[in-house]
Every structure is written in C-alpha cells, then in structure tokens.
Amino acid sequence: MMISNRPYMIRAMFDWIVDNDWTPHVQVDANYPGIEVPMDFAQDGVIVLNVHPNAIRELQFANDWFSFKARFQGIERRLGFPPEAVLAIFARENGQGMPFPPEPYPEEAAETPSKPTMSAVKDSGVSDEGSEKTAQKTDKDDKPNKSNKPKKGSHLSVVK
Q1: What whole-number distance in Å separates Cα of residue 27 and Cα of residue 153?
Q2: I want to staple 92 with a disulfide (CB 3.0 to 4.6 A). Which of 23, 55, 86, 135 is the partner?
Q3: Could you give the angle at the alpha carbon of 68 between the alpha carbons of 71 and 22, nearest 5°?
C-alpha cells in the first residue's frame, strides 16, 4: 500500500506560504472522527486555523497526525487531527494554496469494500444471437462522453 501524499503536500504548501511571508491557514473537517479542535469555533462543519509559526507552538506535521498548541480567547489548547481531515491549506492574504478532496471517515472506509465485488446477473432470456448484438452495441457505446462526467466544485470557502 502506498503512503498518502496529502501530509507531504500540506507540509510543502506550508513551507511555501511561510517562505513568501504570508499567513498559512488550514481548513479542517470539524466532523472528522478523533480530531482535537475547539468545536466552539467551527462553522458549517469546518474550522479554519491559523498555523503561522508566530501564532502557534510545538508544531508537528507527522504523516499520520498534525498537532500544535494555539490560543483561543486567551486559553492555550493542544490541537490535533490527521492529515485526512485537512480540506485545504491556503494563504490568508491572497487565498493561494491547495484544496484537498474530502476523505471517507475511518469507519466508512472499513465498510467500503476495497476491491470490486461480483454479483449474479439475471438471465434476460435473450438468445446468444441477441447477446452478440447487445455486446456489439455496448462496444460502440463505451466511448467516453465528457459531458456525462460529474463536475467537481471547489472545497474552499471565503474567510474574512
């Protein structure tokens, strides 16, 4: 199994944003299981956190868990979440950064089969000759049609 590239991309974007003297923020899925963030500051299932080195302490960006200490209304708290909970990292000043697709929650991933499954197909009563015609028609219809692809929207939201 290959290691996720998400923590690497987040660290790289963090470094790039800080090197440009901007303020890195991460947008985190506040409903992701096991995260440790102040839920009072979450809105619409998302919390946006300032992760500038001057705003936080003891930053650790491990491949499986991000953690740091930050102050909320003057009270220092330890925050932690897996990289899979990060929906975006961006610069506050100009919004430049990188969005990430939402990841399935751990229990959903365990319930979803990792390999395709096979199921029985009911006999339609069509003779072999009819099946051949159907197979030929299907081959022609298998050409990709770009207009049938679902469009993906942005996961970033405006932060003021």
Answers
A1: 16
A2: 23
A3: 80
Sheet strands (E) in the chain: 24-29, 46-50, 56-61, 66-72, 75-81, 86-91, 97-99
Single out the residue of 19, 7, 97 nearest to residue 52, CA to CA.
Answer: 19
Q: Which DSSP state fits 136?
A: H
- 3-state secondary structure at position 131: helix
Digit-by-digit pLDDT tens for the chain (160 residues) are: 888 999 999 999 999 999 999 999 999 999 999 999 999 999 999 999 999 999 999 999 999 999 999 999 999 999 999 999 999 999 999 999 999 999 999 876 555 444 444 545 555 454 444 444 434 444 444 444 444 444 444 444 455 4
Angstrom distance (rounded) from CA 84 to CA 64 = 8
Q: Hey, what amino acid is at 125?
A: G
The rounded distance, in Å, linking the Cα atoms of 80 and 150 is 33
pTM of the model as a whole: 0.67
User: 56 near 70, Cβ under 8 Å?
Assistant: yes
Phi-psi group of 45: left, alpha or beta (phi > 0 → left; psi -120 to 50 → alpha; rest → beta)? left
